[in-house]
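Residues determine shape. We examine one folded chain.
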Amino acid sequence: MRGEHVEYEGRDLEAMAFARNYHAWIRDQFAEFVRGDVAEVGAGDGTFSALLLPLAPRSLTLFEPSAAMHARQPRQLRSAPWLRRVNAAFGAGGPAHAGAFDCLLYVNVLEHIGDDERELALAFEALRPGGHLCVFVPALPWLMSDFDRRIGHHRRYRRHELRRKLRTAGFAVRRDHYVDGLGVLPWLLCMRLGRRDLSPAAVVAYDRHVVPALRALETRVRPLIGKNVLAVAQRPPRD
């Protein structure tokens, strides 16, 4: 579970390290908000973090509680003078991070945190007025599988559930929608009903042959349901 005082096996789906197009798609949907002083919560082995470097925020702080994952972060994440790596849970800092950031990113992280509402309240306090919270989580409770539980997922989110929790924490929701509509059926058949693990070969094939076309399609037409939910929320400029 990220954001809590425990070790876990690795970034959400280690096979997803091969999903370069998928990660770039997520990054590009958040890109306009990744500015100023930025933090990624649950940075894992740095797969997604490395994609943030070309966005050139003023500073980038990576929070990662797992010593094993922290140690695996690549060299390029260690050299930039404006980048700080923290081998600790973001929530462990509590009020210590109050007003420290202009943007926080939780990419496949919030579902690992037992008390996600407390975490969102901490994120609200850590942002400066006008700052943005970028969230990407697994969706649809009826897709919850043994695989989800094994890698430490407490839940999969409905879109309206995530929106409600963000608003309860004080955020104004600027954007929220399902992502990866085509991924629902394969996940249901293979992971939920077939009880399989996610293989690197399957991830590479989906990422190479499906994601580019899916990205183009969903840019024009948002799916009614999807395997994930993406949200951007803002701490109001004046509280």
